[in-house]
Design brief:
- The structure is a homodimer of 429-residue chains.
- Chain A has 429 residues and is of the alpha+beta class.
- Helix content of chain A is 16%, strand content 25%.
- Chain A has ten helices and 26 strands.
- In chain A, the strands form seven sheets. In chain A, strands 6, 7, 8, 13, 14, 16, 17 and 22 form an eight-stranded mixed sheet that branches.
- In chain A, strand 1 and strand 2 form a beta hairpin.
- The radius of gyration of chain A is 21 Å and the shape is globular.
- Chain A starts with 34 loop residues before the first strand and ends in a 7-residue tail after the last strand.
- In chain A, 55% of the residues are buried.
- The interface between A and B is large, with 65 and 65 residues.
Chain lengths: 429, 429
């Protein structure tokens, strides 16, 4: 299944001449080399970069990729992608003769704007965590938390590409219709009162498939470029009123945030894991099943959600960690999501984004959204400074973090995906 | 509400020096002037054209628009769009001094490839026909065909942009999972057995709105560029199994077909109609209501679905007309759909596509899909040559047609949206 086996570019002892990359807790060591888009303040065109420590290497200035089109890079065949990773690894390695040239192509990440990693043509959101689906389903249908199709279908739906924003961009609380008050028939209309985050991974498509040509499970990983952090902001009160019968719409499409650095499938090679499928669940249908997928189809990425309230910010408090979970606890692997998406012939283009859906763990405190952590608002969370939260309040900052750690390998990080809630627009109801 | 009032470019007596445009039944008279993209066989780049009779005028060769980027044209301010329409009308008018120059910029539509009209960033599908929603809802929930939110929410969901194809391109029958057989738990997997069409209009967005900036109802028409025919092919058996709880996905995203010519809101100015809202329904919430919208928010477009089976084709039979309906019977107007879509701050980009949803009429024979016309497959249609259809069979060609006719005005047509069903890929289950 995994198309990428660990090689010399993953050797834990390898060090970079970029000193910040060698710090043990660094997300972007020489073994990672994720790609993103950046520009100088005031520039309009994006440039391509690879993160290394707290710097980025401009791919054009380093003579590696002459253009600024990430989607084109994502479409490269595997051999070209490997060649680029190898060139970056060698050129950024301690003692490389390129250091003299490339030092001028380095830019501090903190001094530039980091964008959405590519032009996202279509964005699909899945529902791959059985723990999330069960907890949320129980709130709506206590007698049948999981619908019968969940065991068989990697449930997904299409989302909005235009409103995907870069990490750091604030997100405005949306207005919308919500359920009529008890006993009434006329819905309320006003600012969302149950604003939530969703902790997800975003999988970026690499090589495209043609319309009408499904991608078999054994080929699916070759069509994945890499992984970023993804916050699918959700207006729970809008969602509850609008979502039947065609699914979520305005409850989701006001904004989603994505982290700037796409960690490649190559970089993740040492961090594969077996699929954790509960014994009570049937084996997948043959088109979604293989020994390889069972043994190493999952990604062993550790995930965290942090919340910093305005009061915390004022007190110089970095925020509370609300939850931790693992991507490897998902019910479906990235390859299964991609194969299912194309089994009807649907075409995926380079740069398309597949959200995993909220990645909650099996324990109640591992919920990847406030909807789960506060039991639908019934049990507010008590924060370390004494504040409480059922849902997000104006000024709250949500930070998603992700990283891989395993004995014998360098830590690989996904960086962070950050967003702050702005108050709703003023207006008349 | 309607931003465009009839003017001299709608005068019924105006005739073109392009003779085919003056035929009474012509879809593309001088008063229409829809825009589309075309290319010569073998070319890779699209060019912009305006349809006139059975010809098209290349906008670059005519010196009107120097580029081939329809999305840029769609983003033009109203004043620029009016200027272009006026220039086309005058230059193609009988007796115009431009005839000598522009004759060389004419190309027979039949000799070129007509494409999807623009690059579609995001595609949204609505559910705007209460007749469709009621008939389909009755099949699933006889006791409550319409859910309580239908009266208030212009229900919509996101669809797939990558698989929208041009009229004329064949559509392959998809594979997928369907419900387990009676008494079983394991779903079937194989080619779709309940393939259907959906008769829709596609509304193209003109001027964009910024993320976080809703478009008020009174401004909504200024953000609409024009209208095309749209067939949202649907795999009903896949849909029934997959759609809960997040909505349709693989049942829809294998293909949608769009007609090549976008009829502008300017051209449709003489064909506005009052909103037909049943007396039993409440008035919309204030953000979706205005006197203008009630009086002339709807589009008086007549719609038809035609089916030609392989046996008909072999016999030289043009096909049966399966249904007729009217866009003006929709429960929500185009402006209401656009305003609702942005009320939470969602940004629409030039060239984005809003499908109306299936436009069925109030009578049972006016269903805009086979699901409705065959009562979910229970009552097969008898065709004029003795064949029967519950759902589409391989080789069937579906043609959507649309036009406006009113005494005192020239007929304005949308042309046709055509697609033929290819057999499913062969493969093992």
């Amino acid at each position: 299944m995994s198309t990428y086996l660990p090689d010399a570019t993953h050797a834990a002892a390898a060090r970079s001449w970029v000193a910040s990359a060698n710090a043990p807790a660094c997300d972007f060591p020489l073994q990672n080399l994720p790609y993103g888009r950046w520009r100088r303040p005031g520039d309009s065109d994006w440039r391509l970069g690879a993160a290394i420590g707290d710097q980025l290497l401009d791919l054009a200035e380093a003579g590696l990729v002459p253009h600024g089109d990430m989607n084109r890079l994502m479409a490269w065949p595997l051999s070209e992608r490997r060649r680029l990773r190898q060139a970056l690894f060698e050129g950024l390695h301690e003692g490389s003769p390129r250091q003299a040239d490339w030092a001028a192509a380095l830019h501090p990440q903190a001094s530039v704007e980091l964008g959405v990693p590519c032009e996202i043509g279509d964005y699909t959101d899945f529902y791959a965590s059985i723990h999330h689906a069960t907890t949320v389903g129980r709130q709506f249908r206590p007698e049948q938390p999981l619908l019968p199709n969940y065991s068989w279908v990697p449930v997904g739906y299409h989302g909005r590409a235009s409103s995907i924003v870069a990490s750091g961009q604030p997100v405005r609380r949306p207005w919308g219709q919500t359920r009529p008050p008890e006993g009434g028939t006329r819905p309320r209309f006003g600012p969302c009162r149950r604003l939530d985050y969703e902790l997800e991974l975003g999988l970026f498509v690499g090589a495209p498939n043609a319309l009408g040509e499904p991608v078999a499970l054994g080929e699916a990983e070759a069509h994945l470029f890499g992984v970023a952090l993804f916050n699918d902001w959700s207006a729970r009160d809008l969602q509850a009123w609008e979502y039947q019968p065609l699914g979520p719409f305005l409850a989701k499409n006001f904004a989603s945030s994505v982290s700037p650095w796409v960690v490649t499938m190559e970089a993740l090679a040492p961090f594969r894991a077996p699929l954790q499928r509960p014994d009570t669940q049937p084996a997948p249908l043959p088109y979604l099943d293989s020994e390889d997928n069972q043994q190493q189809g999952a990604l062993d990425i550790q995930l965290e959600v942090w919340l910093q309230t305005p009061a915390m910010r004022a007190a110089g408090h970095a925020g509370d960690r609300l939850s931790t979970s693992r991507a490897a606890d998902a019910f479906w692997t990235p390859a299964q999501l991609l194969t299912h998406h194309t089994v009807n012939g649907c075409n995926l283009r380079s740069g398309d984004l597949l959200g995993t859906g909220t990645l909650s763990g099996p324990a109640p405190e591992q919920g990847g959204s406030l909807l789960e952590l506060s039991a639908g608002g019934q049990q507010p969370l008590r924060l370390s400074n004494g504040e409480q939260r059922s849902f997000l309040e104006d000024g709250d900052t949500v930070v998603l973090r992700g990283f891989c750690e395993r004995p014998g390998w360098r830590r690989i990080g996904l960086g962070e995906c950050r967003g702050t809630v702005l108050p709703a627009r003023t207006g008349s109801e």
